[in-house]
Write a sequence for this structure.
């Protein structure tokens, strides 16, 4: 019988409930496998260009980077409360889809990507595209989609 031991688990965080649910489940998988959780916040500067913000506006980019650091620190605090501290933070720039499916898994030798199911409605998914859908199709490794818990 073949069993997969996931040692490097990537989870994208954006402050959403879905992403935090995926992160918490990633902690459990990592703890069982004595692996590392890589929490990544991807800053897509093209979105801000589309929204008529200048991609060179350092104030916006600095604020996004500060927000990303705060999200990573929150994840590390949650991990500590959970009793697991093998958590690495990543701030990446570019397409979240490409980063989560290809760039980061290759760079960090990721063997499992965990993503939260999108909270977007059909129109929002059409306009922005679903990161989860792209990752499922294009990822270089296994993917686990975390559905929101029914409460």
């Amino acid at each position: 019988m073949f069993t997969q031991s996931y040692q490097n688990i990537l989870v994208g965080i954006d402050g959403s409930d879905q992403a935090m649910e995926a992160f918490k489940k990633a902690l459990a998988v990592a703890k069982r496998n004595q692996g590392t959780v890589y929490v990544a916040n991807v800053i897509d500067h093209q979105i801000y260009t589309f929204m008529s913000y200048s991609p060179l506006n350092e104030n916006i980019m600095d604020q996004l980077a500060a927000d990303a650091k705060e999200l990573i620190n929150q994840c590390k605090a949650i991990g500590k409360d959970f009793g697991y501290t093998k958590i690495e933070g990543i701030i990446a720039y570019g397409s979240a889809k490409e980063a989560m499916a290809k760039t980061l898994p290759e760079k960090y030798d990721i063997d499992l990507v965990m993503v939260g199911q999108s909270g977007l409605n059909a129109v929002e998914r059409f306009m922005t595209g679903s990161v989860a859908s792209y990752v499922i199709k294009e990822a270089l490794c296994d993917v686990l989609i975390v559905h929101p818990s029914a409460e």
